């Protein structure tokens, strides 16, 4: 992508009306735009990152047998009445159609998926079933003050699993946990992310959250460094301030962002919909269920919160909007300026042909200083400078966003250093 | 994808509570599921087709310079007040948040994109700007009776262009028309789709629709076969029943489905937002605008309406959920059954490795007759049968969905015939 044609612009200062760091820096760097509190537009850079996160999640969900569908946001009141959540769910947006039909905007989709799967899986031969979607969800938040962390509209992956018995549910629950860590690893969040025991609500003794350490998090967790697991403060008393694994009481209290959660729902939602299967002997048996949530936009916000320095964002490689940011430094002298331009264009073409995602700062009226400031703000992993000075040595200058040193690299080695 | 693990099932009969052909056949074949009138879930097959349509549209939009963003569905009342559409827009879903803030669910996005682009493009140096999104939209329809054709929730591509003068707008309007025909060609709808003059509403003399001939369409159009253009019946009197190009009065009245529409909005939306640009002499000038809509889910429905026979769907190649549908016919005799299975598995692996999308009917308890009926219903372009009989001749049987003849093809030529 060429910066000279991109319609968005980064700004010198962060917006003053935004409280959260993630929204401030993502707006300033031109990744998102704020329409209303908790409601954002994803601009080209932001959408590129979202699509990378989406593809990682899709790949890992497919590996554990997930089948992708897309459910609607308009969900009929009747379905929520059946599970008794029309009044009790804390943050449903509700609306009425011309036909007086009432809907909730889906904040989660148990009320849609259970009656749907019931039509397709009814015999013991049909189980287990793993179905997920990547879709826009809505929450009627009282206050939206954490940027992408707690939006009124956000994008989520929700996976639902259906099982014939508890062992099979437990087995898949473990498989899903591993897939979650794989996703956080690929998103650059693994080091800071802990499997966290949390309240199981009405469903079971515990649920599990995935919490990423960050000062700006909304949760307090107690981390056992021995076992790399944590306990949400909401149940720390029930757990007697003890690691459930090694029983140690040496737990460190930390702030963290919940980047995923998984529940054994068992028959909490299948029962109200009278969803049973027929076993081998012809008997009706309850269907048991697990659900596995993960917010794509929240992961985007969490990366912004945790991967940056004073100059801007520092994207982990696999989710960076671009791997390489080419900066062309214009020369005053026409002939050498021309050489710099031609060489930059050639490198841009070469990297694109090698399927490397490249941002190309080919703007001619922007100063060197501004270009460098913007490259740091946007935060691509590799900055590649082409200038009269580097070409004098048949080289380009390469700097990694998370390192201080620059390196001169021969023109014939550009591709190798850009991967 | 293996049919033995797919959670969805096709059914012997179409659902009785669904009036429209497209929804009936897509539900029967397991592509979609109905949650409420005008509100559908896209099951794995349906989602695969949607993603192919989406990729075609994205590629063609990028070719004409479109930059992709993702705008929210929750749009503040205030923005719709500014353009005087809060009350006048015919089908807005409206809702209120806890903070008494009112929103419309976006049915179109002029009210979001204009104030957003205004922040980024303000100098003559910044124009033109072309921005699009592929996103879920909502319409509070009084009656939802046309399946995917007129949903209460649907997926649209909406492109918006911003210009400094009418010539530039007109020029891009022509470029967008060509891109639209390219998309319809790739979706297999070109032969039946006509550029159609329609009412320009409050914006300009005409708008243009893209209408695909279909008995089930909601529009009447008058087609000039000489010029391959049409006139919507709503303006046929204003046009004096005459082709605007060749002036012929020989026009054929047809039913058709509107699969796209494009408008020159000029300053209809930029003016209420006081969106101007600064020209080279430092003067403020009005920004002119075009908009270009296309429903992905409507295209899916239109293909179902127009590409089928009595036995089921007939997907155009580029939008088919799978190019090849492998049908394994089980033998009673163990050894030859084993050979059929192994050969099928080998072909499945080979085609997948060659990046061909394959559906593999590897089910062991389903009869030959049922497998053939289902293959016709699902409608992949190529059916590839592996059986004891075909292997006796070191062959597979290939049948194209839109032809009657079958052909025996040597095992060494399978890849060639599957492309």
Describe the structure.
The structure is a homodimer of 419-residue chains. The first copy, chain A, contains ten helices and 23 strands. Chain A starts with 20 loop residues before the first helix and ends with a helix. With 419 residues, chain A is an alpha+beta fold. Chain A has two domains: 21-309, Bira Bifunctional Protein, Domain 2 (BirA Bifunctional Protein, domain 2, 2-Layer Sandwich), CATH 3.30.930; 322-417, Rossmann fold (3-Layer(aba) Sandwich). In chain A, α1 (21-28) packs across α6. In chain A, β5 and β6 (102-105) form a beta hairpin. The model of chain A has no long low-confidence stretch (mean pLDDT 96). In chain A, the strands form six sheets. Chain A has a five-stranded mixed β-barrel. Chain A has a five-stranded mixed sheet with strand order 20-19-21-22-23, sandwiched between helices. In chain A, strands 4-6-5 form a three-stranded antiparallel sheet. The first copy, chain A, is elongated and about 85 Å long. The first copy, chain A, is 28% helix and 30% strand. The interface between A and B is large, with 53 and 54 residues.
């Amino acid at each position: 992508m060429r910066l000279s044609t991109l319609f968005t612009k980064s700004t010198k200062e962060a917006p003053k009306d935004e409280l959260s760091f993630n929204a401030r820096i993502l707006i300033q760097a031109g990744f998102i735009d704020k329409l209303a509190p908790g409601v954002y537009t994803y601009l080209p850079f932001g959408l590129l990152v979202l699509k990378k996160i989406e593809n990682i999640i899709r790949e890992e969900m497919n590996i554990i047998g997930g089948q992708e569908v897309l459910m609607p946001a308009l969900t009929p009141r009747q379905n929520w009445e059946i599970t008794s959540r029309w009044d009790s769910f804390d943050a449903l947006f509700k609306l009425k159609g011309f036909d007086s039909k009432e809907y909730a905007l889906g904040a989660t989709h148990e009320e849609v998926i259970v009656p749907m799967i019931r039509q397709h899986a009814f015999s013991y031969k049909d189980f287990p079933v793993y179905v997920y979607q990547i879709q826009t969800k809505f929450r009627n938040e009282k206050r939206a003050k954490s940027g992408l962390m707690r939006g009124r509209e956000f994008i989520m992956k929700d996976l639902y699993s259906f099982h014939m018995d508890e062992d099979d549910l437990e087995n898949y629950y473990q498989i899903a946990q591993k897939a979650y860590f794989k996703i956080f690893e690929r998103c650059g969040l693994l080091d800071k992310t802990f499997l966290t025991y949390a309240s199981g609500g009405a469903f079971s003794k515990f649920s599990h959250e995935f919490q990423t350490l960050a000062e700006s998090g909304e949760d307090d967790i107690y981390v056992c460094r021995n076992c790399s697991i944590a306990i949400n403060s909401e149940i720390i008393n029930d757990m007697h301030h003890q690691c459930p694994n090694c029983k140690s009481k040496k737990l460190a209290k930390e702030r963290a962002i919940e980047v995923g959660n998984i529940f054994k729902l068992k028959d909490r939602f299948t029962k109200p919909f009278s969803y049973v299967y027929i076993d081998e002997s012809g008997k009706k048996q309850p269907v048991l269920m697990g659900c596995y949530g993960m917010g794509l936009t929240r992961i985007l916000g969490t990366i912004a919160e945790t991967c940056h320095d004073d100059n801007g964002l520092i994207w982990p490689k696999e989710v960076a909007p671009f791997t390489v940011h080419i900066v062309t430094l214009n020369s005053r002298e026409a002939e050498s300026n021309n050489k710099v331009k031609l060489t930059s264009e050639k490198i841009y073409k070469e990297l694109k042909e090698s399927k490397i995602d490249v941002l190309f700062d080919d703007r001619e009226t922007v100063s060197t200083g501004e270009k460098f400031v913007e490259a740091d703000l946007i935060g691509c992993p590799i900055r590649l400078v082409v200038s009269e000075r580097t070409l004098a040595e048949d080289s380009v200058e390469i700097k990694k966003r998370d390192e201080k040193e620059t390196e001169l690299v021969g023109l014939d080695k550009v591709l190798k250093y850009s991967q």
